[in-house]
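hey so u asked for the seq, here:
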Amino acid sequence: MRNGNRAASAPWIRTRLRTAPGAAVALAALVLVTAFLAAAFPRAVDAYETKGVRHDIGSADAGRSTVEVSRPQPGLELPQTQREAAARSPELSRVGGALLKALPAPLRADTPSVAYGIRTLKPVLATEPWLPRPDTVPPQLSYTAQTGLKKHARLVSGAWPTTPAAVTSTSRAVQGTVTEETAAELNIKVGSTLQLPTAVGEPLTVTITGLVAPRDPRGSYWSADPLLRTPSLIPDPASPFPQNYWTGTVLLAEDAGPALLNTATEPTLFWRIPPDASALTGPDGARLTAVIASLESGPGLLTVREIAGDTAVVATGLGHIVEANARMRDAISPVIAVAALGIGSVAAVVLVMTGALIAARRKAELALMRSRGGSLRGIGGRLLAETAVTVLPASALGLLLAVLLVGEGRWWPAALAATGVGLLVCVALPLRTTLQHIRPTLHGAREDMVSARPSRRRTVAELTLLVLAVGAVTALRRRGTSAGGGTDLLVSGAPVLVALIAALVLVRLYPLPLRLAARPMARLRGAIGFLSLARAGRSSAGGALPLLALLLALATAAFGGSVIAGIGDARDDAALAAVGADARISGKSERATLPGKLVRTASDLDGVRGAAPLRVEFGVTMPETAAGGNGADGSGTDERVTDTGSGADTGGGDAAGARATTMVGVDPASYTRLARATGLPDFPSSLLKATGPSAPLPEGAKSGPERVLPVIASPAVAARLGKEQHAVDTLSGDFKVQVVGTVERVASLTSTNFLIVNSASLEQKAPTALLLTGAPDPGELRAAADKSGEESVVQLRSEERARYVNTPMQAGAERIYLAAVAAGAGYALLAVLLSLLQTAPERKTLLARLRTMGLTTGQGRRLLAFEATPQALLAAGGGLLTGWATIALLSPGIDLVPLALAGVAGADTSPVTLRTDLWSLGLPAAGVVALAAAVAGVQAWWASRRGSITELRAGDSR
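ran it, structure tokens below
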């Protein structure tokens, strides 16, 4: 300017933010939420993986998780004083401290629970006459002298064992102690003496000076070797007859270890190092597995031997625990990746839609700048600056919230995700806006979808995506979501590709019904129908981008909801298979029967809707002719009995398993009612009617082999027996059986080999189990069982069901899918809102013009509602079809067992396939239609409150 003065001008960014503060705040809020979700996802995955590995290590038996370094006693070629010094506490502690320092990361020791000492590897036969001898077999005792006894136990009676004088290998008297449980079972008292034979001379005498109780009975100090705490009655493997004997451990004074060197018990030096899992994280699993392998048979073992001796060995089950955790993580990760890619794609499309909305609102402004000589670089730079001012702080705030609210996770994946969200918005908005103004334009042509013709490039792109989607779905059906133990992004992104193809196809097909419907509407007298169809065809709200966002969101929500529903159904089925009904009372052993009074009392309790007594007999021998697998049709199977519901597997081998089955005696009427109530396969009760040769036996009468009982069999047993009569010998009587029907499952059994008979036709009718339906009070049920006078077991389906939700990894993955469903539904509704807001100014202007021509308020509301209906119905219907097709296509390749049942002992681990959940399909789709109608109604109401002049004077908006 003249005189060196520059013209005063307001800063561009401040001016823009003051001009449209609402749009800036809305964009910042959307980026904030999206950045929070993007940053929270990797942290949530890290969190449940971290909690999972800590839970698995912490809940594992200490005998498996403890790292134990051991070596035989010092060699006989060494001087006696050197051998004795190696077995004393100072040397053991020195070696133990060096071992702790040498532990490679990430393995860390639970230092307060570390124990060192010397123990007898070979149990000693205790011949003292006052010790218990079940089956006339004397007990066998082990002896150990380890550090930390006073710290981990409290003295109950007597005194702590001490070493008044230095103990050597020639000592013949030491002091010891036992736990209360050991003393109670083995009749040990304060002052009792035990003798150990020595290699030369008199035996070693151990005097019990006191009784102790563990401070933490479940801690690794006492649980690494359970015999330290509790004695065990075990069978004698050398006896040809079933004989049991007691075994336990006596704790010697801490420095009494040298006395064991002269005994014939194979004394062994040991260092027990329990792991500290509090600092472990999920990503540490692979490193921990490698470290443990190195300690067991690698460079780590060489380091251990340099410290503890050349004969030292390392034994631990920690590696198996970590590997099992890794297998579950690898099985869950690909399924989680499906949800992550789906929600990520929806969020990206919604952000791009937001940019499109902003670009459409500022199209006239930027076209004016371009026509007056503004460069694309200058316009794009200004747009980038004003976008970054609001987007980058919002992304940072979203990252901060994710870090604060979701703990136990790495920060850099979350930072990358939040940064990606910010960069996407900062790049997409200026790029999309500037590309529309490469050439200065005046008023453009009508964007009428009815007359739009797709280009060749678009056709090629759609065909390419179609091929990719078909390949991804085919791969997923063949190999599941996991490929080679990892996550295949193409396979996990199959639902996204299916939704993308559906969106492109529906956009191409969308003009056809509009074109067909517009012709008859044009002949009608009313203008509302024709105008609504014309507006729906011309509006850009029905373009590919909004429809893609809706289909992706609805498909992802349907997929996530179906995963959650499948998990719940799998757990319900597993609980039903384990219990058999809502509640079950059974005897303590397989053959124990229930008193009749207990059956009547339990059946009459409040909340019980139905009761079915069962007589279950395991190990029923099949006839020789049927056991060979030749049925009536010459086909058969050779399946082993795998029932573990109430008894052990009766099959001792292939032949024995083929000949063994389970017989279930039922009351046909009550059992079929129970089967219908619980959803189990039922059968006509008349098939097992006790008439003719199967009529009920009088009390005390014997069953004869000429009696023929109709039976319902499993398919495997029916294939072996055929239609002929076969004689069977059971504890309930001897009779012949003839198959009259088959069912796939029977209540309370997981075996696939069973026979169902009418219990009234058996010689022994007393039930061994009682199944109940309804909601009986657990306390009353257990009280009734306790009052019966017989030992019984009460199982509840609800309690069994609760066992399947305690694993942190499963619970965390399930929460992620719940969040995926909620986020998918939210983004779907946001996509509808954005698509309608993009054309809101046009609709307001249209209503203002039509009101000047006599359009009433009611007609205006109907016009906007009818205009929004085609796009809403297209999105909702397309979402339903896409979600259903995605689940139907992908369900054969997805097994939900790792999410539903893995890690629960005794759970049925048969494959759990994905199924369609109607609520997850219908609710989001209905929400789309409802929101579209609500927005149209609100717009019509708001437009009616403002005068036509107010809208029309703003300019001729097209």
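The radius of gyration is 39 Å. The longest helix spans residues 318-361.
lmk if thats what u needed
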